[in-house]
Amino acid sequence: MAISFEQIEQHLKTEALKLLESGKVILVLAYGRGYDANHPMPYVAKHPSDVDNIVFNEYCTANLARYLTRYPRRTKIAIAVKAADSRAVVQLIQEDKVCREDLVVLGIPVYGMKNFKTGEVIDSKTTGGLYNPVLYDILLGEEVHGQPVSSPYDVLAAYEAMDKEERWAFWQRELGRCIRCYACRKACPMCYCDPCFIDQNKPKWGEKSPESPGNLMYHLTRFHHLAGRCIDCGECSRACPVDIPLYLFHKKVAKDCEEMFGQAAGMSIGDKPVLVNFRVDDSDKILE
Amino acid sequence: MLKKTTIDKLPELAACLMEKGTLVAPVKEAGGFNFRAITDAAQVDLIFHNTILSPKTVFFPQTEDFVRYSVYQPILEAKPVEPEIRPTFLFGVRPCDVKSFEIMDIHFTRTGVPDPYWRKRRDATIIFGFAFDTSEEADPAEFYHTLGIGAADPDGSDVFMLRRDDVLFLKAVSPRGENLLGGLAGLTDAAPDERKYFDDYIAQGHDYKTRYTCVDAEAIAKEFEAIFHNTDFWTKVSNACLSCGICTFVCPTCYCFDICDETQFGQGVRRRVWDACMFTDFTLEASGHNPRTQVYQRLRQKICHKYSFHIRKYGPISCVGCGRCTRYCPVNIDIFSIVEQAVQAKWYKRM
Amino acid sequence: MSRIGVFVCHCGLNIAKTVRVSELAEFAATLPDVVVAKDYKFMCSTPGQEMIANDIKEHRLDRVIVTACSPLMHEQTFRKVLAASGLNQYLLSIVNIREQVSWVTHDIDEGTAKAKALLNGAVRRARLLAPLTSRVIDVNSDVLVVGGGIAGIQAALELANTGKKVYLVEKNSTIGGHMAQFDKTFPTLDCSACILTPKMDSVLQHKNIQLMTSCEVSEVKGFVGNFDITIRQKARYVDHTKCNACLACTEKCPGKGVSEWDEGLVKRKAIYIPFPQAVPQKPVIDRDACTFFKKGKCRLCEKVCEQKAIDFEQQDTFTTVKVGAVIVATGYDLMDTRSLIQYGYGKYPGVYNALEVERLFNSAGPTGGKVTLRDGKEPQAIAILHCIGSRDKNNYEHCSRVCCMYSLKFAHLFKEKTSADVYQFYIDMRAAGKGYEEFYNRIIEEDVKFIRGKGARVAQSADEPDRLVVEAEDTITGKFIKLPVDMVVLSPAIIPRGDAKDVARLFNLSTDKYGFFMERHPKLAPLSTMSEGVFIAGVCQSPKDIPDTVAQAYGAAAEALTIVVKDKLELEATTAMVNPASCCACQNCVRVCPYGAPFFNETKGVSEINEALCKGCGLCASVCPPSAIIARHFTNDQVLAEMEGLLEF
Amino acid sequence: MSFEPKILGIACNWCTYTGADLAGTTRLQYPQNIRVVRVMCSSRINPSFIFRAFQLGADGVLIGGCHPGDCHYNTGNLYARRRLAVTKKILEFSGMEPGRFRVEWISASEGNRFAEVVREFTEQIRDLGPQTKFKISQ
After folding, report:
1. pLDDT > 90 in chain B, percent
2. pLDDT at C327 over 90
3. Does residue D137 sit within a domain?
4. Which of B12, C118, C621, D33 is found 20 to 30 A from A270 (Cα to Cα)?
5. Alpha-carbon distance C437 to C429, whole Å?
């Protein structure tokens, strides 16, 4: 089954129009045209007349859940989500950052999305092995079936196979390139702290200059803060102007968390985030 | 005097320059191209469109150490860090980026207290401008032409270069360039038809259209002044903005920095590090007050600074249309589209 | 810039032996912001304290570092010195160079180097210390005593006599505990019931004591001075407000249960009072033994009760009491020796444990005070085996402390009541106590046979199948002996109550490896616990005899009193607070706090902390991603600075 | 000179720190390479403390807390267990030797356990050699 982006776009427009006209929501988080067709932008439709500007194509990779926390609580919002994005919404609900009843989730079952910078298909890297949203009120199209289902952690194999020296060299090289533009945290739907720990002067957790020690501190701590919360949308890596594959590290931590605590991030709104939770019978083996 | 060499002999030219000083040239890295101090002549790679970070990094590195100090010692015992300045060859700079140095000079040397770090580096550097390849289709993110900069403008370069297949032409533009080029071994003189090709190429540079509009700085400054308080407009254009620092960090004309003290075991260094007006804490005051807490306020500041305040204060638009901010924006915000919309917004308002 | 004074203690030679203290003081003087550094023989002595006080004034110190023993030892001492000198007591830092340096090395170079590193860390941290103000709270003057054994009874009476209201919670239907089961007490051989029952009665009569039998603590909230304790009143199925203790019900009841008081040696009724002197002397129904509960009909007791006190519908009820302090005196169990199959307990009827024997001696016991075996015969030879399960690395390493003495008591009583030969199999005789050695000597003269050797095995006699053989090595003669006897008395290890872990969890007590509650300090705070306002007394802390238990009960009562006599109490100021400017409203703090101290302020959109509930663990600070929570006295900055100092050299 | 590792210990006040005191009171000997920071609860330990300790040149980091279920603050160490487990995984995937970071539950009565763990850990770090990966060179 091929994905018809036009059809999704049409669906999206129809539903957005209905929601805005009925006053059920005051804004719709969707995609709009950027400076050309290959570069769509996140778009906020507030009036029925805005709906015409909504687009959807294979380059609409942005995870719109990132914008949810920008609006005051109790704002009625409709949001277009793909599979991974829907997990971000679920995770935000778990964390009480947004209320389920304030949201109309427009689920988009889709595959074959492409990185607008490189044209590369992102499915195998960062969709968590999912094509269908885990949470939606309205599904814009048919559920995707028959696509190859791979483990979200398959891409890790090569990195896990490295010995520690290789891994160290790899991350030194990758993180050493970081220019501390903080696009990763800003693109991340789960990074809603303001200020971020690294911006703090008291305590000063790490150096602000883009050199290895500060970069290491920033990224490792961020990986920890996102442990059990990262929903594998891959936005951090796509946002990165110097192409640091942050998603690999996040994936690895997500994998470990899933193995240790038996719960993946953003799969059910009833879950409690794993690092603010415990089980009395958690094994001490996890510390070995 | 037009000289030439071939792309495969580039390492020889590089080696030659490296003998005379520091060579900074585009290098291919995992994330893309960047200007780096060359340690191995073979690193120099001219088959690139443009770098991720602008060449401002050469004069205004992201991190610059000012003072080394020992905590608990009197401040008078702190030692200033003298930058190590060597003759530098900045190789392969696109014309729009060359233009940016002129704009940055306003801030670092021509107004207020001159910045010794910028000035010393600038004085010690010979710039090898490098024309865009006009046979390629224009990058949709770029708009230098719109701002009156040609794809092959030699202005501001000491030596200007262009590539024709595997031949690299070099022409001295300034007396410093002339001096240097004359003493470089391994270059041959170009043939007359090649000289004509070179001149034509430069002339036609202005026909290489990046966007369609032509901009009148004064008019734009006015438009932005008129819509400064139009919150709806600014909110609308900033809805997608993530407030990250990419656009400012890659920008050749952004010059904001923060001063940080980094101390360990009592030994510290006071350094400046790039800062970005898009960061929430950029305007955070010690009192806790922050005049720009909203995304729209920050985006407005950035755009108005470049397209309005800067014109009023210093004359030129503080933008060279290199398109980096647009190209690397994770959500495809296009600064020039906002400029276009600003004009319309004004117009709508008048109606 | 701060002005730090560093005071290095020699602790006699305790520290000075393996740390070059004067070198340490010289080193301290080179550290940033240190304006004075001295060493002295005993910093905790009066001249030492005066020296610090003088230097605070003379050098206008605003931070004090005492480099001495563990902060758990003398932090309070030196805090008082600061407070008396007009300096906020939280501007003190203690460097532990005794317990964690001088006592764990013989090498003076290593010791000095480590002491320097620790001191450097303390100086870095001290510069960032902030003055803190203690919270003052109202104190509830009532006290809860958990456990109605002799410890709980004594503590409750003491407190009640001072005029304080006491809630005495006992999980059984009567108070009295194990002491009520004993016949005689060593070494004086006075009758246990005679000395205990008047006290039990006093408890019942005391106007300041609310006796709560058949009750258990189900929830503990709050903190020192302000505990909210929820108590579960287990259903008794008899309304004690109506019952007039005529006990007609117990006569008619056809149900049979196992008598706990008689250690299961006999049966009792399903509706019963545990023993004649039980307090309160009102019956309860044992649901598991009751015919009505088992078969759905009977209700004989209901029929005979004129007071209509029987209530089969009764449910567990919960009440919450507010108290200022708690005394935990939950007592002990004997180790279940069935697991030690070599002694045949539970297999051979002739093998008894110590408490069973206590009941055999007792005139109110199953045999009316006659010592007879289960088959009714009088034993001709009796072996008393010491240290069963205790002083045993495979089971409990600790000495149960009272077994030697009660075994001697048993020997005496056996001699008095039978004509049997009595043998003691012991490892060592431990008779430390007033009159104990004398008692031992007396028993030796009573023709009791002492065999120094631990009983190794009890087996059925091959020659006489109804007799037993005790096997042991007599370590004096070095000979292996096999002794035929009729009765074997085991002295099992004394261990904490089976539910001690639950009690520990409720009251936040630490336990040692056996499950005995941990005191705050083994010598200097034996009745306090790590939980402020919760005290322990009796065997729940470690095995001890009645005099020691009673002494502890008095002590615990006095400790509790030091809290509840005050109207107000100062609490530690080391709580957490939220910096609202950094709070990202993730509410992690609200999710994790074990005490419910943080809450989310919807209006402000930030978390806040109710400091009265905060215990200062710092969990919220570490789960706060933007570091908006400040764990006072252990702030991120302070910890990072200390780490940097520790790792510098 | 032979390599003397710098080991940072972070111990909870109620169990491990008290256990370490007990080791001293009972005069157990252990190597002096460990320097202990006292915090109230193992749950106070921010993962960034550990990253920072390595950046400051610690060759090993040893965390000590109450046994699960015995936490003075009821559940603090149960959270700590999860958080520190993740910290360990992150260190490991970044290329740090996993043996440099260890979490142990040591109660107030386990002075000998404390001494034993410190002995063992110090030897282990000695074998691993100096930690150079995270350490910030001056």
Report:
1. 78
2. yes
3. no
4. C621
5. 9
Name the residue facing D35 among C114, C513, C595 (closest C-beta): C114
Residues 201-220 of A with CB under 8 A from B: 207-211
Would you say residue B174 has pLDDT above 60?
yes
Which pLDDT value is given to residue B215?
72
CB burial string C126-155: b at 16+ within 10 A, e below: bbbbeebeeeebebbbbbbbbbbbbbbbbb
> What type of residue is C575?
T
- The two tokens of residue A68 are 């949810």
What is the tens place of the pLDDT at every residue in B310-330? 999 999 999 999 999 999 999
Q: Which residue of D has its CA nearest to B68?
A: D138
**Residue D16 corresponds to which tokens in the numbers above?**
């491990």
Contact between D86 and A257 using a beta-carbon 8 Å cutoff? yes
Residue type, C289: A
Query: Which CATH number do you get for residue D46?
Result: 3.40.50.960
Domain that holds residue C624: 575-631
Average pLDDT, chain D: 94
Torsion from C-alpha of A139, A145, A151, A153, nearest 10 degrees: -40
Contact C32 B266 (CB under 8 A): yes
Q: Which amino acid is at C394?
A: N
Which chain B residue shows the shortest CA-CA distance from C646? Answer: B265
pLDDT at B212: 66
Task: With a cut of 50, list the residues of chain D below it in pLDDT.
Answer: none
Contact criterion met (CB below 8 Å) for C580 and C637: no
Residues C59 and C170 in one domain: no
C73 with C26, same domain: the answer is yes
C583, with CB counted inside 10 A (0-12, 13-18, 19+), is buried
Same structural domain for residues C156 and C83? no
Chain C residues near residue A94 by CB distance under 8 angstroms: none
Query: D52 and C619 in contact by Cβ < 8 A?
Result: no
Q: How many domains does chain D have?
A: 1
- Given a contact cutoff of 8 angstroms between Cβ atoms, the answer to whether C534 and C506 are in contact is no
Task: Write out chain C residues lying below 8 Å of D13, CB-based.
Answer: 72
Residue C412 pLDDT: 96
* Chain C nearest CA to B72, separation (Å): 6
Cβ–Cβ pairs < 8 A, chains A and D = 101
Q: How confident is the model at residue B350 (pLDDT cuts 50, 70, 90)?
A: very low
Specify the 3-state DSSP secondary structure of C197.
helix
- Regarding whether C128 and C20 lie in a shared domain, the answer is yes
- What's the CATH number where C405 sits? 3.50.50.60
pLDDT band at A2 (very low <50, low <70, confident <90, very high): confident
Same-domain status, C501 and C545: yes
pLDDT tier at A128, thresholds 50, 70, 90: low
Give the confidence band of B349 by pLDDT, cuts at 50, 70, 90.
Answer: very low
Helix axes B295-304, B335-350, angle to 10 degrees: 100
Q: Do A221 and D47 touch (CB under 8 A)?
A: yes
- How many angstroms away from the CA of C1 is the closest CA of chain B? 9
Residue of A62, A181, A209 with shortest CB distance to B271:
A209
Same domain, C344 and C479: yes
- Altogether, the residues listed in chain B come to a count of 351
For residues C181 and C226, state if they share a domain: yes
Residue ranges of D 1-60 with Cβ closer than 8 A to chain B: 56
Model's pTM, two decimal places? 0.80
Q: Which residues form the domain of D44?
A: 7-128
- Note the pLDDT tens digit of each residue in A45-79: 999 999 999 999 999 999 999 999 999 989 999 99
Residues of D in contact with C646 (CB under 8 A): 8, 35, 37
Select from D24, D39, D56 the Cβ nearest to the Cβ of C618: D39
The nearest alpha carbon in chain A to B245 belongs to A181
Reported ipTM: the value is 0.93
Burial of B96 (C-beta count, 10 Å sphere; 0-12/13-18/19+): buried
Do C46 and C80 share a domain, yes or no?
A: yes
Determine contact: A99 vs chain C, CB below 8 A: no
